[in-house]
């Protein structure tokens, strides 16, 4: 099996863990463990921690080392340096809002599976040519949402997507009903307000509802 095939099969297994991948912004590293435990308990164990805060890499490290059942990944991976830092922190997968040649070259040389973003047929085709069959559709709602994904399924049936950006509890099921959607990503499970209040039970309840959505 080639490296990209191996990476694709690992990212597929990750994206099949639950219908929703929580996209998390962690401001305080001490939130990482209770937050991840709540998400795992609620049934959404593939967790994308975005590299948007100074706490993100330490949060990934803490979750990777301490939370049984979690599959923690890094989001907002934009540069080869981000990819390297994510892997060093113990991330099991990486997610990017898009892709650059530099990032894809780095991913080719890395063991860390990458879920790169695409919002057009040309972007998706460029990634397909490099061996990617699983893509993040970003920004999903702003780029055309369900209609865009339906349109892409005709000419590009080999691809499956994790739409992210504008997904809500109200529209998630419509996305998940599409044949070329493997799961969706969203930040609604872990609002800052609940993190700051330490209301992990409420986060677990949001995760439980998301986990019950049908793929
Ligand atoms: C992001 O960029 O933060 C993610 O795509 C999540 O988007 P959302 O906040 O619309 O769920």
Task: Please provide a written account of the structure.
The chain is an alpha/beta fold. It has one domain: TIM Barrel (Alpha-Beta Barrel). It has helices spanning 3-15, 32-42, 56-66, 80-89, 101-108, 121-129, 140-143, 145-153, 172-176, 192-197, 200-211, and strands spanning 20-24, 46-50, 71-75, 93-95, 114-115, 117-118, 134-137, 160-163, 184-186. The strands form 2 sheets. A 6-stranded parallel β-sheet has the order 5-4-3-2-1-9, sandwiched between helices. It has a 3-stranded parallel β-sheet with strand order 6-7-8, with helices on both faces. Strand 1, helix 2 (32-42) and strand 2 (46-50) form a beta-alpha-beta unit. The radius of gyration is 16 Å and the shape is globular. 3-phosphoglyceric acid is lined by residues 23, 138, 164-167, 186-187.
Helix content: 40-55%
Number of strands: 9
Question: What about the largest sheet?
Answer: 6 strands, parallel
Dominant shape: globular
What is the CATH topology assignment?
Answer: TIM Barrel
Chemical compounds bound to the protein: 3-phosphoglyceric acid
How many structural domains in the coordinates?
1
User: How many separate helices?
Assistant: 11
Order of helices and strands: HEHEHEHEHEEHEHHEHEHH
Q: How would you name the CATH homologous superfamily?
A: Aldolase class I
Unreliable stretches covering 5 or more consecutive residues: none
N- and C-termini, Cα separation: 28 Å
Mean pLDDT: 97
